[in-house]
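=== RUN LOG ===
request id: a7f3
mode: sequence -> structure
chains: 1
length: 331
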Amino acid sequence: MNKKNARRITLLLLLMFITYAIISQKGKVNHRDENNKIVTDVTFNLPMNTEEKVDLIVEANVEKISYSSEWIDDRVLEIEIDKPTSVENELVKLSAKNIKTKIPLVTKEFEKVIRIKEDARIDVIRINPVIGSEEVRIDSKIIIEMDEEIEAAYMYGLEGETKIEGKVITFKPNNLLKDNKDYNVKVAIVPVSKKQSRLININFKTEDIESKKIVEILKDEGVLKVYEDGEIVKLYKASVGLPEFETPEGRFKLTDRGASFYSKKYGQGAKYWVRIVGNYLIHGYARDKEGNILEKNKIGEPASHGCIRLDDENAKWIYNNVERNTFTIIR
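=== RESULT ===
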């Protein structure tokens, strides 16, 4: 081979190399998640001029995003950006043009859209009642514990009071849950951090009470409720025991009843009594030995020796309409 042909071959190879470099202009992009950062490696097929600054463009659905870039070697550019965590910020676009190589007049570019994984959200530690559970008590609260502090929570499918203490959400329904019923409630949880909000579906089935009516007595609120077929049919003001005569809490079945009674021990009696358990009764106004009404204006506040005290008219309705063995909850 003469020198002239050798020069032609050399020029041809150089031309092929430059053509390949220009055609293969885009760098190869790989990314990984590290804590709250997205680390992206851009790999080039030519040695790059690492002394030149890369004009990096990072686009996301946020007003401002922090990032940095660094050459690992003359073919790999590492880019580190803060991870967007809100629902609207699932995509991040990375791009750069005219990145200089070590070959004169040859430049590179790259463009990549990265989808953020949905692991940038709060996680559930525990749920009570357990999802899918059966025989859940009708007086249950719903308790959810997350892995970080909660700013707000919204319950859909039940009405009640939501209380947030740090990482724990406690939801107290306004009324007893219906017995022998399948529930499917949704809870939207907003964390204090900028992580994604979380929507949790909680399904469970309540216990079968096997009682036509249910009586619920709320001590702190001073009320008695009567449910029939899961709906409130009566709501009465009620007095519970004084602090020194605490009304017992628990689950009971009503037993015997009578038109009136009188206690020599306490010097009081009442009309229309229905027994809850032991000497604890539901009854009307407190009366003296002669039948005179005592403390009529105290219904709704603690006033009794442990019994549940109602207006006479309301006690009479309970006496006449709430059957023996009716399921009763005091809480």
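=== NOTES ===
The chain has a mean pLDDT of 86.
The chain has three domains: 3-115, 124-205, 213-330.
=== END ===
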